[in-house]
């Protein structure tokens, strides 16, 4: 029997941290409702203590979302946690996600705290959060650059205090798949109470390996939650892209053997909504949701796809929310693509009979390729020069 993998979406929190990607409360509500429609397991709605606007957005989302868990991020202090609990109060299912840095660099330069102080504050934060909900997630920030012995000590302590999810954060995108996955596996093997929590991965894309690191964390490290964003939005180079994770798991289920609840047909509508609201265009060659993800320009590829789609497509465009794949006519296209497109256009627009006064194939039901390529008066398919 396959294990269930939890999809945790942080578009509304980490995604909004992309410079220029801020959203209004109404826009966040629209995205949250679409994420629930897509059947995301956990929606991280924001950082309640960050601003009054964030607080109100989380509270509004908590008031309307019923199927997904609504989560708020908080630093490991009582004020942040209390603020998160207050914002999440209307939620039917809620989670407080608290974090503190554990790398030597962050503790010394940013927190200016000793390891012992960080250890105590992490435990106290989880203990305090448990007063408001049984669902508490803890993240060791900059975990992938932290000392293994210290990580084991901190994580064992927070699980003992009641943390139900442990999120191993590759905060600065430093991880390499094999090393990151092995580090997570080592933590789970060394921590005596590791089986008392669900293990999660949160990877940034600074070296372009966020998706690979997340999947390594699952397959090598045994994580059963992936934190991700729509279109890979997030700090600096972004986060793990939800659409890539979901379709990797679906397309290569033979390898991953994991169940997910996501309705993949909602991926493209969600991507377009987030792009429209944030103003961040999706690059054409972006996996799954890019305009060229299911487009074919090479004659060899076009010929194969026209004969059997699975020759060059490992996914169906319709399965992720596109209307269909695309054959793009151009200098690289072969005869078969031109012939098929010309016939389709003639039958769709003209009932198979060209009425162009100058057309040498006037009245024929089987126009030739050369008619489109060389002699059709410069008209492209879909124009009206041949009507």
Write up what this structure looks like.
Helices cover 40% and strands 14% of the residues. With 387 residues, the chain is of the alpha/beta class. The chain folds into 3 domains: 3-278, Aldolase class I (TIM Barrel), CATH 3.20.20.70; 295-327, no CATH class; 335-373, no CATH class. The strands form 3 sheets. An 8-stranded parallel barrel has the order 2-3-4-5-6-7-8-9, surrounded by 7 helices. A two-stranded parallel ribbon has the order 1-10. Helix 1 (25-37) packs parallel to helix 2.
Q: What is the N-to-C order of secondary-structure elements (H for helix, E for strand)?
A: EEHEHEHEHHEHEHEHEHHEHEHEHH
The CATH homologous superfamily of the largest domain = Aldolase class I
**So, CATH architecture of the largest domain?**
Alpha-Beta Barrel
Radius of gyration: 26 Å
Choose one word for the global shape. Answer: globular
Low-confidence stretches: 357-369, 371-387
Strand content: 5-15%
Mean pLDDT: 90
Helix content: 25-40%
Number of extended strands: 12
Which fold does the CATH topology of the largest domain refer to?
A: TIM Barrel
Give me the side-by-side strand order of the main sheet: 2-3-4-5-6-7-8-9
| Count of DSSP H/I helices | 14
* Major β-sheet profile: 8 strands, parallel, barrel
- The CATH class designation of the largest domain is Alpha Beta
First and last CA, distance: 59 Å
Write down the domain tally: 3
The structure class reads alpha/beta
